[in-house]
Amino acid sequence: MELKALFEQAATDSKLLTEKPSNETLLQLYSLYKQSVEGDNSTEPPSNPFDFVAKAKYEAWTALKGKSREEAMQEYIKLVEKLKSN
Hints:
The protein is mostly helical. 65% of the residues lie in helices and 0% in strands.
């Protein structure tokens, strides 16, 4: 199976996990997904200083700057597989 198909399957599987991952793991999933699909974060930082969720998501995705989409896909797939086996 090609990488993109494996990634799409992992994205589907991530929605079917029996246990909700920790907030840290959810941020990791989010940032790897965004990096895989969109590449480096080019959005503006959240303007509301009290929107901590938006800020955390922005920072997590921005931290992956320079990581290739393929590498992010591979890491996302591995993380979902790890979560499925727990």
